[in-house]
Amino acid sequence: MATEPFIRPLNRPSLAFTVLVLSSAVIMGTAWAQSAPVVTEADIERARREQPNITDQDMERARQKYRSPSNAELNAAPVPTQPNIDALPQPKTTAPIDLEALAKGYSAQSHAMAQAQGLATGPGLFVFISLSMPRATLQRLVDQAARAQASVFIRGLAGGSLRTTVAQVQGLISQRQVAVQIDPQAFDRFAIERVPSFVLVRDGTRPVSCASGTCAPPEGFLRTTGDVSLDYALEYMQRRSPQFAKDASGFLRRIKGQGN
After folding, report:
1. Per-residue pLDDT tens for 85-122?
2. Are 189 and 231 spatial neighbours (Cβ–Cβ below 8 Å)?
């Protein structure tokens, strides 16, 4: 009995798929061959003509145009004249500058700033005022602060003007050697709410952290407020807190002209 050859059903689809893949490859190869650019000798020659060609003559012309000056040309150039110092604007005042007074004032300011931060050795005495206070009261306090070697503090500028503030302060201190500072943080450091106020800081006090940056610890200073003289405030502090009596007595002796 004759039999027909057994043919798997998958053979025909596989053959069709293979033919399809080969056909696609042939088509892609043909397309790539058609799209690839062909560079000819004419294209190369055209690109060579479009490129700039710098010759030796071009470089020589540029060298001549932008050459450096010779020594003879440099020597012949005009020399700038020296400025005439005497022709500069001069200050209106002709009074000589007192360098010694400036140095003493700077030294006093530096010492006062160190004391206000609790960084100086020895006790500190601070007087807090306002330029709006009666002038007689201000002059008395500034005079006593100068003799006691105390520091005077102002919260801000008079009328918002630095020029006005400086003029008023100079009128108060005159020839006295006293440190006057504009320092609103000092008012916060010692919780000053009224003027005049007086603060006596004990010897050896060191600053501690607080909302205003650094403050003296509560046990390190005394504060009193009232329209009184500086010596009266110190005597009141002596009576109120005997542990501060030694520090206060030194400033009292200076006010009374009895030295340190």
Report:
1. 566 565 555 545 444 554 555 455 555 555 554 445 67
2. no
pTM: 0.55
Q: How far apart are CA 149 and CA 126, in angstroms?
A: 9
Interhelix angle 135-148/245-255, nearest 10 degrees: 110
Could you tell me if residue 159 is left (phi over 0), alpha (psi between -120 and 50 degrees) or otherwise beta?
left
Nearest one of 131, 130, 126, 129 to 111, comparing CA atoms: 126
Query: Sheet of 221-225: strands edge to edge?
Result: 179-182, 151-154, 124-129, 197-201, 221-225
* Contact by Cβ (8 Å): 214, 230: no
Range 168-173, long-range pairs (CB < 8 A, 24+ positions): 168/131, 169/131, 172/135, 172/138, 172/139, 172/142, 173/142, 173/146
Q: How far is Cα 209 from Cα 201, in angstroms, rounded to an integer?
A: 16
Helix and strand element counts for the chain (H, E): 10, 7
For 178-224, what is each residue's pLDDT tens digit?
999 999 989 988 899 999 999 999 888 877 777 767 777 888 899 99
The residue assigned the tokens 């200076």 is 254
Tokens coding 114? 């160190």
pLDDT at 160 > cutoff 70:
yes
